[in-house]
Amino acid sequence: MRSKLFVAVLAGSCIAACNEPQSQQNQPVIKVRATEQEQLHTLDAFNLAIGLKHAIYDAGYHCKTVTDAGFVGTWKNLDMWMARCTSDVGPPRDWAIFAGPDGSAQVRDCKDIPGTGLPACVIKERPKGSFGAPK
After folding, report:
1. Which residues are within 8 A (CB) of 45 and not within 5 positions of it... i.e. 6 or more apart?
2. Mean per-residue pLDDT for 70-95?
3. ∠ at Cα 47 (53, 56), nearest 5°?
């Protein structure tokens, strides 16, 4: 009988404690970053344009010339960049490039971003230099 009472008390205390969410205050935040993510922040405008253009091409899209680009911010463990591209046809197109901690890149058309919960394609930090060929 005594063991049944102990189990009942133990179960009752677990019901009270088990349904409470664990405190997030003491949980360490671990941010994993790739060398590629860090390197993007050190590039001048010309070389950043080359890197972002490669990511756009690798994703199967077209970008003839990057006329503007920069860092938008972080979203979860991804660094978000934006590149404005011109082509021979149509108006300029803005691309969101997400650089991941595994060295990967994901590319989205900025017109598809609103309503997704992703940050807006607004450049917060531009690189030094010009997007044209270095002189």
Report:
1. 69, 126, 127, 128, 129, 130, 131
2. 94
3. 10
Residue 100 identity (one-letter amino acid)? G
Q: What is the DSSP annotation of 49-70?
A: HHHHHHHHHHTT---SEEEEEE
Going from the C-alpha of 43 to that of each of 20, 38, 73, the distances in angstroms are 47, 10, 16
Residue of higher predicted confidence among 46 and 15: 46
Q: Would the pLDDT of 97 be above 80?
A: yes
User: Residue 43 carries which side chain, given as an amino acid letter?
Assistant: L
3-state helix vs strand vs coil in the chain, percent to 5 = 30, 25, 45
Residue 83 has pLDDT above 80, yes or no: yes
